[in-house]
Design brief:
The chain is an alpha/beta fold. The chain is 40% helix and 20% strand. Bound molecules: NADPH dihydro-nicotinamide-adenine-dinucleotide phosphate.
Length: 450
């Protein structure tokens, strides 16, 4: 069965691949299992060296990988370059983390008690199409640093950079079988990884619906899972904020990656006393977002990933929006930047759109802002804009969400934990926190009695 890969900006064919099935998945798991005993014995400094080499190879091939990602996802080349830069940083970081992740000794009677951080074995990594190589690296880095072997399943829409990374891992010197990439349907390859008795853990990023499938499927073998799922994050703008700065930044916190971002601040909550002024500033800032050819250096927003996804996104916009931008004519899965006024009960404010559509919602005071922001099944990220430091901390503590920024909309850093509350999932990626979910704690007691 062949798989055709398209460029979403041109609808032209980029590649034609063979689709893997259950047999190929089983073969990849068998290869990963066979490679594990030797891989876990590799000295930590050598494991670190391999990760460092992979990071350097990503840097050496930076432009090629960025172009590939840009063409396959339809994302602007400037953003793709940033993402590939982060992939290299992630591997550098986990190269440095290999020998800083260790056990402890615990005072007990009659002997010595110590803990070890053991690898899990074969881990299955299932990643989405919005930040393909970036999200893959967040899982590969800690998984390999902890001496696991991996089977990576990229999304069928966007497998090209993952395939290339598999080659680079071999070039870096990772032994055969340590890093395996399998391209095929989620419902076939993904499902098999979830149920396979020789896979110890699934690291998953994607929709909450499939996340639930992962949990259900993993129950059969009591697999470990970490889930990074959807979001419906709030960007809370108080009247005392630097409104110009907040309004200038807000479009990029929703329309970046054409809104196909689990951290998108797609609910913009604005204190009623400054609502009209902020709305005017926001419309002007949104008008300035440069939408067009992803290969153009100046482009800030490209198309959506597929025709089907464009239909889903369009279904969210009912009635006349407050503002809707322009998109190029001709081929490509384009959808314009769209601002709508909403109540938090509207569908647009409750469901993850995963497209360039933001809902503006007014609030009266701090208590109502917190109540609205928390009135969602999700809890991934969010922002607070205020000049009042005490309020910023108060609200940050009150929000039920995993990653917050104050007077900023950035969520992700290589060295800091990333992940969700509530139905946005559990487990943390990035930073030293990620190592906890790719290792098992073993406790050993040694008697010192004579
Ligand atoms: P999915 O959750 O379906 O896809 C994510 C990954 O899971 C892909 O690799 C996919 O494979 C795989 N997958 C799909 N079904 C299964 C299954 N039954 N068992 C195992 N793996 C599976 O997301 P979509 O691509 O369909 O996007 C739908 C919505 O999900 C978006 O509109 C958005 O709301 C949300 N989403 C959230 C993301 C996030 O970053 N948190 C990322 C992507 C989507 P394949 O696609 O190859 O079949």
């Amino acid at each position: 069965m062949t798989l055709t890969i398209l460029n979403p900006a041109t609808e032209q064919r980029l590649a034609q691949l063979e689709r893997a099935g259950v047999e190929e998945t089983d073969a990849a798991v068998a290869a990963a299992r066979a490679a594990f005993p030797a891989w876990r014995k590799v000295a930590p400094t050598d494991r670190a060296r391999l990760l460092r080499r992979l990071a350097t190879l990503v840097e050496d091939n930076h432009e090629e990988l960025a172009r590939l990602e840009s063409r396959n996802v339809g994302k602007p080349i400037s953003g793709a370059r940033g993402e590939i830069g982060m992939v290299a940083q992630v591997f550098h970081y986990y190269a440095g983390a290999v020998d800083k992740h260790y056990g402890e000794t615990i005072p007990v009677a009659g002997g010595v008690d110590m803990t070890f951080r053991e690898p899990l074995g074969v881990v299955g990594l299932i990643v989405p199409w919005n930040f393909p190589l970036n999200i893959a690296s967040w899982k590969l880095g800690p998984a390999l640093a902890c001496a696991n072997t991996v089977v990576l399943k990229p999304a069928e829409l966007t497998p090209l950079t993952a395939i290339r990374l598999g080659d680079l891992a071999l070039e870096a010197g990772f032994p055969e079988g340590v890093v395996n990439v399998v391209v095929g349907r989620g419902s076939v390859v993904g499902q098999r990884l979830i149920e396979h008795p020789d896979v110890a853990k699934i690291g998953f990023t994607g929709s909450t619906e499939v996340g639930q499938e992962v949990m259900r499927g993993a129950a059969g073998t009591v697999k470990r899972v970490t889930l990074e799922l959807g979001g419906k994050s709030a960007n809370v703008v108080f009247a005392d904020a630097d409104l110009e700065k907040a309004a200038a930044a807000a479009p990029y916190s929703v329309f970046d990656n054409a809104g196909q971002d689990c951290c998108a601040r797609s609910r913009i909550l604005v204190e009623r006393s400054v609502y009209d002024r902020f709305a005017g500033l926001l419309v002007e800032a949104t008008r300035g977002v440069k939408v067009g050819d992803p290969e153009d250096e100046a482009t800030e927003m490209g198309p959506l990933v597929s025709a089907a996804h464009r239909d889903t996104v369009a279904s969210f916009v009912e009635g006349a929006p407050m503002f809707q931008g322009e998109v190029p004519d001709g081929p490509g899965f384009w959808f314009p930047c769209t601002l709508v006024e909403a109540s938090n009960d509207d569908r647009i404010a409750r469901e993850e759109v995963f497209g360039p559509v933001a809902a503006l919602i007014p609030f009266s005071d701090e208590a109502e802002a917190v109540a609205i922001a928390n009135d969602t099944p999700y809890g991934l990220s969010g922002s607070i804009w205020t000049r009042d430091g005490a309020r910023a901390l108060r609200v940050a503590r009150a929000l039920e969400t995993g990653v917050l920024s104050v007077n900023s909309n950035s969520s992700v850093r290589v060295s800091t934990p990333f992940g969700g509350f509530k139905e946005s999932g559990f487990g943390r990626e990035l930073g030293m926190h990620a190592l906890q979910s790719y290792s098992e704690v073993k406790n050993v007691f040694i008697s010192t009695e004579e």
